[in-house]
Amino acid sequence: MSTAAADTPARTGAALERYYQFHSRIYDATRWSFLFGRESALMRASCVARAQRILEVGCGTGRNLAGLRRHFPHAHITGVDLSEQMLAIAAKKIRDDQTTLLRRSYSAPVHPDGKRFDLVLFSYALSMFNPGWEQAIDAAWEDLAEGGCIAVVDFSHSNLAWFRRWMGVNHVRMEGHLWPYLGQKFVPLLDERFTAYGGVWQYGIFIGRKQR
Ligand SMILES: C[S@@+](CC[C@H](N)C(=O)[O-])C[C@H]1O[C@@H](n2cnc3c(N)ncnc32)[C@H](O)[C@@H]1O
């Protein structure tokens, strides 16, 4: 019998906050070299979603907030993240008054007064919700207006055990677990995997529509 305390969203959240106290300082300088597909996901999402209200869950240092603003110049954009340090960097990049940042762990819907979103983006965030990824996808469903779209770009899986272990040290689960559940909850418009560094890992892009 294991005596280790089970992970809970609260424990994971605290561990992630500690992780990003350091990593926020090197995030923008380093992540371009392995968080692939982010621009492509935004471009594809902008083709299918005519969004007036957008939510990015786990917006981090705000790299995608600027991209979303380029694709959706008139939209109201909300970024949610649990890390104060990451959000402080994002806040410095915001150049308009139509972007709002919320500091919280995303485990329940955040839309105010029934004003649901037309597009919810998760960019390299869901693979860090361990536990809580299903709950976060369910919350996104609730946050989306009927006919709205979810866009996810994230690590998928790796056949290399040492690499999966290393990513686990960095709070990332790489077991291809996100895509089947996304495909059950949303009508898939795009569901593709791509190879990184000659096969060290696969990442994926999913775009789906909420339809009852
Ligand atoms: C790898 S970063 C991605 C940042 C940004 N989306 C990007 O593509 O550059 C993951 C972010 O998700 C946030 N995050 C992880 N779990 C979260 C949770 N349960 N609720 C809110 N944010 C979370 C982390 O604090 C971190 O800023």
Task: Give your account of this protein's structure.
The chain is of the alpha/beta class and 212 residues long. It has one domain: 3-Layer(aba) Sandwich (Rossmann fold), CATH 3.40.50. It is 38% helix and 26% strand. Helix 3 links the parallel strand 1 and strand 2. The N and C termini lie far apart (43 Å). The N terminus is likely disordered. The chain binds S-adenosylmethionine. The site of S-adenosylmethionine has 24 residues, from helix 1, helix 3 and strand 2.
Q: TL;DR of this structure?
A:
The protein has helices at residues 9-30, 38-48, 63-71, 84-93, 133-143, 161-169, 178-185, and strands at 53-57, 76-81, 99-103, 117-123, 144-157, 187-196, 201-209. It has 212 residues and is α/β, with parallel strands linked by helices.
Radius of gyration: 16 Å
The CATH topology turns out to be Rossmann fold
Strand content: 25-35%
**N→C terminal distance:** 43 Å
Q: Strands across the major sheet, in which order?
A: 3-2-1-4-5-7-6
Superfamily at the CATH H level? Vaccinia Virus protein VP39
Largest sheet: 7 strands, mixed
Model regions low in confidence, pLDDT < 50 over at least 5 residues: 1-5
Assembly of the depicted chains? single chain
Mean pLDDT: 94
Helix content: 25-40%
